Amino acid sequence: MKKKMISTILALSMVTAVLTGCSGSGSGTAATTAAKADTTTAAEAATTKADSADDSGKTLTIGFSQVGAESDWRTANTESMKSTFSAENGYNLIFDDAQQKQENQITAIRNFIQQEVDYIVLAPVTETGWDTVLQEAKDAGILVIIVDRMVNVSDDSLYTAWVGSDFELEGQKAAEWLNSFATAKGIDPKSLNIVDIQGTIGASAQIGRTKGLQDAVDKYGWNLLEATTGEFTQAKGQEVMESMLKSYDNINVVYCENDNEAFGAIDALEAAGKTVGSDIANGEVMVMSFDSTKASLTDVLSKKITLNTECNPLHGPRVEDIIKALEAGQTVDKKKYVDESIFAVDDTVKSVTVDGNSYDVTVVTQDVIDQRAY
Ligand code: AHR
After folding, report:
1. Structurally, what CATH architecture does the domain formed by 167-312+340-370 represent?
2. Looking at residues 281-293, what average pLDDT do you find?
């Protein structure tokens, strides 16, 4: 209660300072810029930010609710957050692994509120279902930063900033690459028989990547035989692929919505006697994936994965930039997309165009793999 009263008083003075031009927020630039970004001003954030501003120089306590440990991407993301918000860097990180369950994340957020953390950082498992608990955080005067996947809330002021991937763009890049590759190889679009091993249903990464594929299926006339969730895990990816192979004998493209699903799918395909590769015309089954971890780029180099669209997990420093800007009373972008690459087995397609923007395709070499941080 004391925290909330102080917050309100300081919030009013910060708002006044901004309105009279005395605050640093007018000249302070956001730590980042983004094409699609709008912003949260210091004044908007002040209703919940004031207590931390009063605590400058003290260790900041960050409550981080992580989705789980379902993938190599997630492990790299956790590591990035832990190494950034370390005691040596002046933070007290309270880390919670929700084991892919939204109810666990809601419980974790309520615990963070009780512990009066300075910031709550949420990597949400799915987009919906956050209004109530984020309203509780707001009422308690605690700023919430969303990372990786997005939340879909009725009131945008329930979170201060979001940083993550443009998942639909990732799906569009992959689909446009497939169209260009098929065209270059003289493959009839109607002969492409695709299965989609989807991510966790309702997660932004699934919604965007599935939509990118589905839109291209409608546009180019490909056959989408089935779309089933592999829950972003290797075990489920393998299980779903095994089941799909029992249902269809004509699959020639497997669109995996993350690397671990791709690893499982490749195991299932090879166990079924299939050859994975890009030579669809001669019976190979093409595997496409997302994330671009070191292990998956190694599979691109050995031609098991044909295309890998990057999803960058190194969000720790990006979240820290937001927190540092807020601590300094600066304006931050409300939404910030990270730049991501496309990695392919060869240079058949040199670039893809989505919405008028061109994206280069990088051919995977050992040097490319050696330079990967995760
Ligand atoms: O939200 C990012 C996705 O979640 C990554 O593609 C996947 O590997 C992770 O589990």
Report:
1. 3-Layer(aba) Sandwich (3.40)
2. 98
